[in-house]
């Protein structure tokens, strides 16, 4: 069975070089971004199992986090990164079935233009990646809503990846990102994003974080309408195994809203978590039909451009 990993990461080498020329210390606070398979695309491809296909997205080395908010290079860096990501898909179509575009969150008008110019018409760019916070604000901030409106109109998905809340001093990769992911989902639901854009497609990393475990707290505290809106999110399977948790994820979101994702090449050294996640899915008591949806069918449906 073909496995389409919808949340596989790269750090496009030309883009990385451009960033390091501007900010030589850009990787100093994120050692995990130095993983060799992020930028050595040849070795990245060789590391994959024969039945693995990937939708690639850049790790969270965002120009707007490194440069002054009014720096015009931010937009050009995002545009160049998208061209490089698209080229990877074109150069290695047997492995990379799509890529996720970057948008400059410091300039929403420029982000909308970039979506129209690069994402909407381009073969290879399947959607865009947003993060749980941007420019010191939660992603649910009204200033970012035009991006959600645009993507809903285009019927193209948004990939939602966690980042640390820069106001906190005790962040950890184990727990903080999952809290930030959960909080972002909560804020989007409370903001009524799915009420205004019922066709909006958001793919949440790490199996929807805390939401499946606390589903009944959501139902009784936030109400049945909010509970139903949480189920509108799509989620991946990137929780490094744990069949019981994956079964709970499928039970809450439904098999038609769960997509295979591994966080490759991160998580389990040296090549990533594809084996442990695949085994966990087979051990989760899912049906053959559910597994087919998760491994590839949901992606095929979601990737169809309007």
From TrEMBL:
Keyword set includes Methyltransferase: no
Cross-referenced Pfam families: Amidohydro_2 (PF04909)
Cellular component per GO, a single term: cytoplasm
A GO molecular-function annotation: hydrolase activity
GO biological process: secondary metabolic process
Record's keyword terms, sorted: Lyase
SUPFAM superfamilies registered for this protein in UniProt: Metallo-dependent hydrolases
InterPro entries documented for this protein: ACMSD, Amidohydro-rel, Metal_Hydrolase
Domain Amidohydrolase-related per the UniProt entry, residue ranges: 77-298
Keyword Lyase: yes
UniProt cross-references to Gene3D superfamilies, sorted A to Z: Metal-dependent hydrolases
Signal peptide start-end: none
Listed name of the protein: 4-oxalomesaconate hydratase [Lactobacillus koreensis]
Organism: Lactiplantibacillus mudanjiangensis
